Amino acid sequence: MGSISFGEILVIVVVILVVFGPKRLPELSRQIGAWLTKAREATSYVAEAIDSGYGETLAPIRDLKDEFDGLKGDVTRAVASLGENGDTSQTRVTADESPPADEPLPADESPPADESGDGATEPADQ
Question: What is the pLDDT of residue 52?
Answer without folding.
Answer: 80
